[in-house]
Design a protein that fits this description.
It is a single chain. By secondary structure, the protein is α/β, with parallel strands linked by helices. It has one domain: 3-Layer(aba) Sandwich (Rossmann fold). Strands 5-8-7-6-9 form a five-stranded mixed barrel. Helix 1 packs across helix 4 and helix 2 packs across helix 5. The radius of gyration is 18 Å and the shape is globular.
Length: about 290
């Protein structure tokens, strides 16, 4: 059954606000997982509902390793989101992915170690598939939106999610290239996993800010990254406007809307009521 879109936009480093949102208001949303990175800017672009969340908070007070991704995804679900378009600053592990280019991500390698990566624990054990971790429908629309904004775009990128907050060593950077990674960042995992667990189709557009340190004689520094982020910002905002404008009038269901079907392995007799109470947003379809 077709329905209306409500697009959650997660803004990465350097993207702390969003242009063109009408009837906009910042709304604080409580979650059972703690506080999200910031309030959520709720409004619309044209006839489409949008919910904007700056991933690191306005002014970038939240470190990558301290992001509460469970709260962020839960809050977006509570705010009514049907889909998520995430935007992230990334380093390049490929010569052809030069600073200023946008890369639409298709796969992930997760090297994060300190972050809670699931909503589902003992008492409600769930295993969702992450074989194809992004929504192809959203990713295709995102790539076309970048092109319409006259940006350079690459598709099918593999994103290496590192813990941070330090940048890579040269040995790590070269190893990641050998693994087949194309871009590197610190924030898209476990964000993408949690979006899938919340049955939210997810696409990620990486804004290339630098070449990672696999190149001889080069090293990543914050000044370089921030400068390129600022250059990328206007294009990112134009991409979002084009993405929203290009959405079909009605939202047809996605298979990801039903990601929890056949994913719960705990027998109903063993469901923990306290655990289930915390899932009232992310798994609400199962309890309806």
């Amino acid at each position: 059954m077709a329905s209306e879109w409500c697009i959650g936009i997660i803004g990465g480093s350097g993207l702390y606000a969003m242009d063109g949102i009408e009837d906009a208001q910042w709304i604080a949303i409580d979650t059972p997982w703690g506080d999200p990175s910031d309030e959520i800017l709720c409004g619309r672009i044209g006839d489409v509902k949008v919910r904007f969340l700056p991933r690191h908070g306005r002014g970038h007070p939240v470190s990558p390793s301290e992001l509460n991704s469970r709260a962020n995804i839960d809050a977006l679900k509570r705010a009514g989101c049907t889909d998520i378009l995430a935007i992230s600053a990334v380093g390049s592990l490929r010569e052809e992915l030069e600073p200023g280019r946008f890369a639409v991500v298709e796969q992930f390698i997760d090297r994060t170690v300190h972050r809670p990566s699931t909503f589902y624990g003992s008492g409600f054990v769930t295993h969702v598939s992450m074989a194809d971790p992004v929504c192809p429908r959203l990713s295709d629309m995102a790539a076309r939106a970048v092109a319409a904004a006259k940006g350079k775009v690459a598709v099918g990128a593999t994103y290496l999610a590192m813990e941070g907050p330090q940048f890579s060593t040269r040995a790590e950077s070269r190893m990641y290239r050998q693994w087949g990674a194309d871009v590197i960042g610190m924030t898209a995992m476990p964000e993408a996993k949690l979006a899938r667990e919340a049955e939210l189709p997810y696409a990620l557009v990486g804004m290339v800010t630098d070449y990672d340190c696999w190149r001889d004689g080069e090293a990543v520094d914050v000044a370089q990254v921030v400068g390129q982020m600022q250059a990328n910002g206007a294009l990112a905002r134009a991409m979002v406007q084009n993405f929203i404008a290009g959405l079909p009038q009605e939202r047809e269901p996605s298979p990801i809307d039903f990601a929890l079907d056949d994913a719960v392995i705990t027998a109903p007799s063993e469901h923990d009521p306290e655990v289930m109470a915390k899932l009232d947003a992310v798994a609400r379809r199962l309890f309806a």
